[in-house]
Amino acid sequence: MAFRASPSLRAAFASKPLTPSSFSTNLRKHPFAFFGLPFVLTVVAGSFALSQLTQTRYDHRDAKVKSVSKEQELGMRKDRRKLDIREEYFRLQASGEMDDMDYENKRVERLPGQGEWGELPVAKK
Questions:
Q1: Which helix (H) or strand (E) holds 71?
Q2: Is 118 left (phi over 0), alpha (psi -120 to 50) or beta?
Q3: How far, in Å, CA of 66 to CA of 12, rounded?
Q4: Rounded CA gap, 50 and 66, in Å?
Q5: Which of 7, 15, 68, 77 is the most buried if burial means most Cβ atoms within 10 Å?
Q6: Inter-residue long-range contacts of 120-124, CB under 8 Å, 24+ positions, other chains counted
Q7: pLDDT in tens, the chain (125 residues)
Q8: 30-60, pLDDT tens digit by residue?
Q9: Cα-only R_g, the chain
Q10: Burial tier of 114 (Cβ tally within 10 Å: 0-12, 13-18, 19+)
Q11: Is the dihedral of CA 49, 52, 53, 54 positive or negative?
């Protein structure tokens, strides 16, 4: 059995012919203008916005790094002498401060089955 529309339903659809709107006509003629161009503009605008945000971030970080307190500034004098580890060692020896630091190296006991150079028994498999 086939579906039959009532005469009033057929008359309602018959009075409205199917004509494409100007928007759909333009969309078919120029798809790039409606889809591609907004996408490209969004990407370019996003690139500029992100570059500005990134620049602001780095400027803020640089300002934070450059702000030095008075105490830190006093500790960074240009005329202070350079630290040399050998001079400090000899200075400590001469002053006798190193005599208090008597110590003896002790070898740590090895695990059972551990080699001379510290490899574990599991690694030998």
A1: helix 70-75
A2: left
A3: 77
A4: 24
A5: 68
A6: none
A7: 566 766 666 666 666 666 778 878 888 888 888 888 899 999 999 999 999 999 999 998 888 777 766 667 666 666 667 788 888 888 887 877 666 666 777 888 887 777 777 676 665 55
A8: 888 888 889 999 999 999 999 999 999 999 8
A9: 42
A10: middle
A11: positive
**Helix or strand or coil: residue 117?**
coil
- Going from the C-alpha of 39 to that of each of 26, 27, 36, the distances in angstroms are 18, 15, 5
Token look-up 């970080």 returns 61
Output phi, psi for 59, to 5 deg: -65, -40
- CB within 8 Å of 26: residues ≥ 6 apart: 33, 34
Amino acid letter at 124?
A: K
Residue 14 tokens read as 């018959």
What single letter denotes the amino acid at residue 95?
Answer: S
